[in-house]
Known about the structure:
seven-stranded mixed β-sheet; 31 helices
Amino acid sequence: MTRFEVGDxxxxxxxxxxxxxxxxxxxxxxxxxxxxxxxxxxKLPSGLPHIEKIDSIVDRLAAKHVDxxxxxxxxxxxxxxxxxxxxxxxxxxxxxxxxIEPYQVQAAYEILNSYDHRYLIGDEVGxxxxxxxxxxxxxxxxxxxxxxxxxxxxxPLTVQWQEEMREKFDQNxxxxxxxxxxxxxxxxxxxxxxAQEDFIITSVDFAKQSxxxxxxxxxxxxxxxxxxxxxxxxxxxxxxxxxxxxxxxDNSMERxxxxxxxxxxxxxxxxxxxxxxxxxxxxxxxxxxxxxxxxPYRFGHESQIEPEALDDLMIRRLKDDMYExxxxxxxxxxxxxxxxxxxxxxxxKLYDDVTEYIREYYNLARQEENxxxxxxxxxxxxxxxxxxxxxxxxLENRMRAIQNEGTGQxxxxxxxxxxxxxxxxxxxxxxxxxxxxxxxxxxxTITQNPDQVQAELDRVKELWRQAKAIExxxxxxxxxxxxxxxxxxxxxxxxxxxxxxxxTLEYLRDEIFPxxxxxxxxxDLNQDRRRREMEQFEEEANIMLAxxxxxxxxxxxxxxxxxxxxxxxxxxxxxxxxxxxxxxxQEHTVEIRNLFFKDTRESEILSLLLEKTDQIEADLGMRSxxxxxxxxxxDLDETIMAAIANDTPTGEVVANIEATIEERRExxxxxEEQFLIRDRFDLSDEDKEILDVIERSQHGEISEDDIxxxxxxxxxxxxxxxxxxxxxxxxxxxxxxxxxxPNVLSGDQVKQRYPMATFTREVAMxxxxxxxxALDHPLVQSLIDFCxxxxxxxxxxxxxxxxxxxxxxxxxxxxLGYISGxxxxxxxxxxxxxxxxxxxVATSSPEIVDTLPPSEANAIEGLDRLTSMADDLHQQxxxxxxxxxxxxxxxxxxxxxxxxxxxxxxxxxxFEEEINRWEDRLETxxxxxxxxxxxxxxxxxxxxxxxxxxxxxxxxxxxLEEEKHVTxxxxxxxxxxxxxxxF
Length: 983
């Protein structure tokens, strides 16, 4: 009968574990207290069947129990791969399909080495904040610290985030919208919907909903977020400046619904990243409340914020402050020039007549307080200066709607809900939503009076005939001449042309450049088509036509000439357009030409804005984002339309805007100097150490060959199949294979067949339709888990030979780690210790010649001596392993103590100020009460506030005290190998 003792590892029906206590029973039996591998405590009577002792590695060494070489290689290689990037290396640099830039690595490196991974990333447009966040997510997943991730973005960017995380980082996210959530509630009505998936992307405007469908008793999205049990390991907010809270006149805090989403997520997340190109919009209270989402105790008031105090909370790099290894700037100059176009007499008459029509109906809409009809006229004015073709199409639509009696004063309910967003933040609508709104607006009129409707129809028809009669669009001719001159000088040159409307894009494509090879990107294209169009522009086409709906996600730094065929009235879009070319990797001065009609209010106003902001950018050393910040509180639509409606002279409008710009310029300078951090990135100086991190990551211990060997060995053992799918011999630079996966691997993430797969990053970057079998691929991760957790891969003991003139010994391989203050086991290192028969312990072992099968063990001279010494040698290895893990944990402990000390100081100051404030109030209330005024209610409220603050203070300080502790974890022996001389 097997005798069991404390410390024995056993397996039983339903699991495995370690005996922590043996309790004798009155009947002579025993009760085992077992700590299972799942982290549970169980009590098992000794009389249960199927309880078996699992021999330890030392037991097996002493018994000369040698495993099959291939099994040992599988386990050892899987262990090494499992820990390959958990310490000071970056998985992202070798396991994705993109070129990651040094400054992006530096940002992620700073965040990953911080205490709690909570940062505001405020890099300028074009630096790749999405990539930086993606690196952090992937690294935390690879290091075993992130099982649940939430990404919150504006609705138009959710699909783009999903595509980028899948294509660039091989991470699959589910988009949560109304339909997805409704389906999940039906499937699991009693489970919090946010707990049903672990990798989620959602829009901030979906998440902010506080009420659900009419008649539904389901918990609203924001309430479900607020009451979520399994917290987020990583949460990301893109365009985080939309999370707005402000200080009211009575000093209280006014939260928008979007900010409430930020609070709900911030309170339920470990790592938190806020991404925004406009971190500070000139409102210090709003910036303070945004920072408070990351660290509520850092500042007691916005007046306390200073750049130095943001150093470990914010990363912000401007293009002008970034330098290469040779000291040159990473980003070239921009050269912006305006190309004014004089209208032909027919165009001038059309412009004047349409503007007069718009002025009349816009003023009528204002009188009738008909907001929708006013928006309709704004759309027409924008399309009028976009192209003759665009306004002609709008006039056609207007005629058709009137003739079909489709006009009316009321918008559909779904459009009504979108109007507030459309009027204030149109960039937060999806393409489909914006099109839906504008199509509905074109059917709106102010009156249902038949005579007035007929009068409008007659007028629109006449305007349409005028537009149709104009065969030549003067602006298009100037564009054609400009592009022609560029291509004559260099037939291989690339020109990117932006326009706001798809109608104008189609006109340029079909009428102006019919003989050119054109790439085109607009809102209705899916991601695959968009990718093909971008490839065509890079490889074949000289011209790309793009709308603003397509500007996000276009990385076109291989081109350097851009034309704004029309200027959007939303200044943020202009910055975003330029950011497509003015980004890392651009080797030439970015040439930007702005086409506009002379002698029109809207064009001259916009041209002035561009000129002024370009000057401010130069003065402040900024390359983007200035216009959006300068015009933060300026409603450009209203300014331009008011000028048109009132027939205000252009000079007067321009003078008013210039005054506003100068005022905002001063505020912007103050913000830059007093509030915002500005990180210099210089590869020739203080940041060059990041190149060492990149070198270690790209040329570290693990290679593409290691992963391929592991997969091939596993497939050999467990009957999988790998065969090439490209004809001819295998390519030396990597090949493409069909993988038929062994049946032992199963799960939602692993397919049974991968028809196109490669182990080579270079091939994966060239072919998007090929699975990249890298370390973080689900197949590799599943395979590693199987090798480490399954009894079907023994492989713990090997017999190896060496030709080195070294004493025989045993190599013990350990996983080292520590337990953090939060109770997490952080495994960071794999260490091999070679202990020889003379008692020497070394971190390096002799060079291995061969691994022998079990059948040869009895014939090896000297092996019996090693087996007899196994326990003693193991004890020596264990002592050294403890020394190393103690040292390792001490480094982490010192860092934790430093970080928590800073956070404790912030928390103590915060609570002290709040408690003093409420104590002063309480004293005032009590004095007034003693003077005869009934102050019982305010006194009671103040006492409750003080009680709450003191409780929160105790809880926060206790949490910080816990978090500073770092406890070495017992070294885990994972494999061992006899090493003997090769004879």
